[in-house]
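Dear colleagues,

I hope this message finds you well. In preparation for our joint manuscript, I am sending the Chromophore lyase CpcS/CpeS (Stenomitos frigidus ULC18) sequence together with its predicted structure, so that both groups work from identical material. I would be grateful if you could confirm receipt.
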Amino acid sequence: MDIVEFFQRSSGKWFSQRTSHALAFEQAKGGQSELQIELLPQTDPAVIKLCEQYKLDPTLALCGLRVNWDGTTEGEKAKQVGNTVLVPIADPDSPNEGTLLRTLGPGEKVLLAGRYSVGSDETLTLTAESETMYSEERLWFANPNLRFRTSVLKQSGGFSTASFCSEIRKGVTSPPPATTQSIADKKA
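The corresponding structure tokens are as follows:
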């Protein structure tokens, strides 16, 4: 499986249930979200715009992924609502690894490209690092309609958060058909 296939399999509506642990405070919180994940073709205006923001040629983009979420966390009154666009750019010598572009999140002022790799076990690993934080997220499918996600966020000052999510596809029995080509198809 390559990154485009992983993103394609992720497309759809999902219910996500998570547990997060603030390790420094020895505190755990539960939460849940509704996710809407949409595969975007390389030519989508959001993909092109994101590549241009990172000063990269949009033709290097393999595809894009738009993720919208609407969720709650135990003990917090405010809902967590947001969205992001992700764009993978494969390493020329290693198509299962590359750079992952993403839109800025709330309060972020600096673009930060991360890395992705798809392992032989079909697990997607995403990493990002700056002077003040390091994050690592791993995602994999137990079956086409059940996905798991773990993440670790380490911040300067010693604060770390770990989380586990189980995500269940809603309303369909398989991912929608692909709207973009896989890396293997592009090379042919």
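For the figure legend, we might mention the following. The chain has one domain: 3-187. The longest strand covers residues 27-40.

With kind regards,
E.M.
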